[in-house]
Amino acid sequence: MKSFLNFIRKNGLYAFINLFGLTVSLAFVLLLAVFVSRQLTTDSFQENADRIYIYANENFIGSAYYLQKHLLDHFPEVEKATSYLSGSGITGLGELHIAGNDAAIPAQTSYADSSFFDIFSFRLLSGSVEAWKASDRSAVISRRFADTYFPDKDPVGQALTYSIVGDGDYTFTVAGVMEDIDHSVIKYCDVMCRADIMTELNGANDEEMSNTGQFDTFIMTWPNSDIQAKIPEIRDYLGKVWWSYSENMVDKVFFIPLRDLYFFDDSQSFTGNINQGDGQLVKILLAACIILLLFAVLNYINLTVAQSGRRAKEMATRRLLGEGKAGVIWRMIAEATAFAAVSTVLAVLIAEALAPYASRLLGYEFSVLAEITLPIALLIVVGIAVIGFLSGIIPALTISRAKPIDIVRGSFSLQIRSWFGKALIVIQQVVAVAMIAVSLMMLFQIRAMIHAPLGYNTEDILNVSSDIFTSGSQIREFREAVEAMPFVESAGFGEGTPLYGTNNNTMYYQGGLLGFQLVRGDSAYFNILGLRLKSDNHLAETAWYWNEYAFKEAGLPETATEVRFGNEKVGYYTQTIAGVYYDFKIRPLLQDQSAAMIYMYDVYPENRTPWNILVKVTGDHGEAYDRIAEVYSRIRPDGAFDASYIEDEIAATFEEYTRLQKIIIIFTIIAVFVSSLGLFAMSTYYIRARSRNIAVQKVFGADKRLVLRQIVISYLMLSLIAFVVSVPVSWLLTSSWLNQFSYSTGAWLQWLLILASGVLSCAVAFFTVLYQSIVAINTNPVIALRKED
């Protein structure tokens, strides 16, 4: 080991590039590995995980509130059942108030039935599950919420009051404090209220299950029972009691095990109540870990083989002194393992320092040091041994096989260093070009989706929720005040936005069901969004307009003026159609289009409460937001202003893809950087090896520019070979990415970005090699000829 340390001291560039490249790669690998490990072990702490299932059908994972009661009462395999709804304090039960605190509290509020804590292993720190079960006005709060709002007193027994516009106050009593929900499909919440309240707030949450899709239904089966075998019987029963099945809206019944739920991806849409993992992201991150680790190991192998001439003399001497081939091999493996161990220690420290930034990027909090338990530490030791073995075995075999006479002559290094190093450089550059192409493709595709034409205006529109007001008079006062502001063009009342959808109305039509989004607002709302009328039937009576897509769904010509809904069971009725609106995208871009019934009020009715106020602004968005928030604070001093720009809301729907894009870009930068380090070091050693040849050429009068061109072109040829190999790889990867989207950029851009990736890779290689080449040709030939390789 002493000789290895001496070698490192004499070859600082070799040591720095190997240590830096391996440390950076391992730090990134550790961050990704911890994240992936956390993802793969979601809900592993649940004691009843093997007996917990969630109901689903072929279209979505979601159900009616009373489904849990039907399953529990009619199927003995079900031991416990609960409905679950994740919401927020503002959109769920209105604003939350606590005695002694005048301001409204922004609390994340979820809802579940009495058996929730029997099914899931979320520990109560104080209070009791019995108190939670005792009253349908019970609530459990998180430790974080308790520490924030009850720092000096016991929260158990305290009152939580929710105020709903036009519907009065609802008070819950704190029954306990729970450990913060984390590492689960169940979302974190500040307050968990009994879900029974939802039957009071919405009459459609009845035993007939009129309201479908708002809740998730979890069941816990008895030990050794088989709920999957009961699915045909459950399907028959639901066909008798639930209109979703009797009216053929859905047909199948599924029970998804909790252990499969986090990464479940089988075409069903989710209600948004639960946390979902991204299996594609995990696979990409695993691939990133492997590639980065491979790059670092290849660099070590490449540089060690490049330096083999110097190490070979030492090893040849050892063999002459009696050390066998095996001793030489294990000595070099031990050196590589020690090097990997030092890099790993540094990588752990760097990864922990970067963990907060990685947590924000991934949207998932984690700590590297917190995850290093004894089993993980042992796994890291095994990993160090594997990396050390892989890094050391090829250089060791290369040197140990050499004949002492070849080492003395110097022919050994000439035979090995050239082809081996160049092959590894090509491999690294193939991966680098492919990753650059994927990164650029992601960047342009996501940008194209965010700015795709949607058929309605999206720029400079602030969407203000009406839930932040306590009365209709406050809403109207707010509108009048903001309309008077110089940077506000107009303000309109509406009932939702195209992005998030509006109220849904599903009707019986020609033996099936036909669903419509009900788009309602005043003239200012329509003008702000730029919704365009295509044709008007000029009916005398008040009637709904349809969008173009609704006529296609109904199989009617756009000239139709009436439509017949209903069936023999509920009766038939005729609805008039006022005209046609041009299609505009309802729901996010990547979701299916919806049929819409559209109604514009000249003046929004006094007896209706709008869902939101759209404010068209000019100038700086941040300044406009702050000024409008000041107006709200004057009208509602104890309230919390809640608004967002539609542009930002659209961008947020692509947050998952944007996050993935950032990860891939960071990974690409690191991969290209590590690859460039290797190329820089390799060019240094290979050019040093050719220094005598260059000196001889100069002595015989060779032109410096010609020599420089020969050196640079030899490395650019490697980049060109790598580019040719990377083209099909890049095409397959970018095509795979684009094929998942219904809206995508053209193939011409795909080819252009692949070409740009190759040019960029060649440029990096050119400038990496250029400096070393210039130094070599400007070195005094006398000095070069005196040097020993």
Automatic annotation (TrEMBL):
Natural source organism: Candidatus Coprenecus avistercoris
Superkingdom: Bacteria
Q: Which PANTHER family match?
A: ABC-TYPE MACROLIDE FAMILY EXPORT SYSTEM PERMEASE COMPONENT 2, MEMBRANE COMPONENT OF TRANSPORTER-RELATED
Q: Name one GO cellular component term.
A: plasma membrane
Recall the taxonomic lineage recorded for the source organism: Bacteria, Pseudomonadati, Bacteroidota, Bacteroidia, Bacteroidales
Domain MacB-like periplasmic core, residue spans:
16-182
> Which keywords does this Swiss-Prot/TrEMBL entry list?
Cell membrane, Membrane, Transmembrane, Transmembrane helix
What protein does this entry describe? ABC transporter permease
Residues forming the ABC3 transporter permease C-terminal domain are 289-404, 665-781
Membrane-topology annotation of the record: Multi-pass membrane protein
- TM ranges are 12-36, 284-307, 328-354, 374-398, 419-444, 663-687, 707-731, 751-771
Q: Report the locations given in the UniProt record.
A: Cell membrane
Q: GO molecular function of the protein, one example?
A: transmembrane transporter activity
Identify the InterPro entries for this entry. ABC3_permease_C, MacB_PCD, Macrolide_Exporter_MacB
